[in-house]
Design a protein that fits this description.
Helix content: 55-70%
Largest sheet: 2 strands, antiparallel
Low-confidence stretches: none
Number of helices: 10
Number of strands: 2
Shape: globular
Strand order of the largest sheet: 1-2
Strand content: under 5%
Structural class: mainly alpha
Order of helices and strands: HHHHEHHHHEHH
Length: 242
């Protein structure tokens, strides 16, 4: 059974990583068969409804399943070693649904593709995705995406209690992963109507997600997290306050 759990966790991780790579291509209109602006545009109203529903499916899944109350209920049926892997798998499937069903919306908000500003946007786009990936490794990438849990279970060990840490970028910004996503979603040389909807929707979700996540962190770490929140900026990197 331990081997089965590990195999399941590994498959979930590989699905996540493939989805992560596809997301970069999807938002950047790079290398993938279906991107945020590919395909023929149709009814703008229908596209708005479909795309908003797709963003909502991901937001609800991603937020609700991350709450401690849901986890307590969820782990009555799902082994705790597989809880994170299952969460990651369902989040990946919600994104795959979004990628497959997204409807492009025409119109150009800005187009800097033939200017130095366009090159700057590409640089910020790359920095954003690299920031996301690097930030996950700063806090334990494999635990965040469930692989460490099934590996420790495979070896017959037990996971230590989570401790509050603020490594590297986390000393200058509380949510570098979200910062990276915001850079990646907004830094585009060509902003279409569909891309703007995606950027606005994900930004709204990120802000709500931060609010909910920090409530959980304060409940878990109390004064320690409140002091961290006082000293360190939420999304704009800067020197911590004294």
């Amino acid at each position: 059974m331990r081997q089965v759990f590990f195999a399941y966790g590994l498959v979930c991780y590989l699905v996540f990583f493939g989805t992560f790579l596809y997301a970069a291509g999807f938002t950047g209109n790079l290398w993938v068969p279906k991107s945020i602006d590919s395909g023929e545009t149709g009814s703008v109203l229908l596209a708005l409804v479909v795309n908003t529903l797709l963003l909502g499916v991901f937001a609800v899944q991603h937020s609700v399943m991350a709450r401690q109350e849901f986890k307590k209920m969820w782990t009555q049926w799902v082994p705790k070693e597989l809880e994170r892997s299952t969460y990651v798998l369902l989040a990946s499937l919600a994104l795959i649904l979004l990628f497959a069903s997204w409807r492009p919306i025409g119109g150009t908000v800005w187009d800097f593709s033939d200017s130095a500003l366009g090159a700057l946007f590409w640089l910020l786009f790359a920095i954003g995705w690299l920031t996301v990936l690097a930030s996950t490794f700063m806090i334990n990438h494999f635990e965040l995406f469930g692989l460490n849990q099934v590996y420790v279970h495979l070896k017959g060990g037990s996971l230590p209690d989570l401790s509050f840490r603020t490594p590297y970028l986390y000393n200058y910004v509380r949510h570098p992963i979200y910062l990276g996503f915001l850079l990646a979603f907004w830094a585009t040389p060509v902003m279409t109507g569909g891309h703007l909807l995606f950027a606005l929707g994900t930004t709204g979700y990120i802000l709500i997600g931060i609010f909910l996540e920090e409530k959980d962190l304060i409940a878990a770490y109390g004064v320690q997290y409140q002091e961290y929140k006082r000293k360190v900026s939420m999304l704009i990197p800067m020197r911590p306050k004294d």
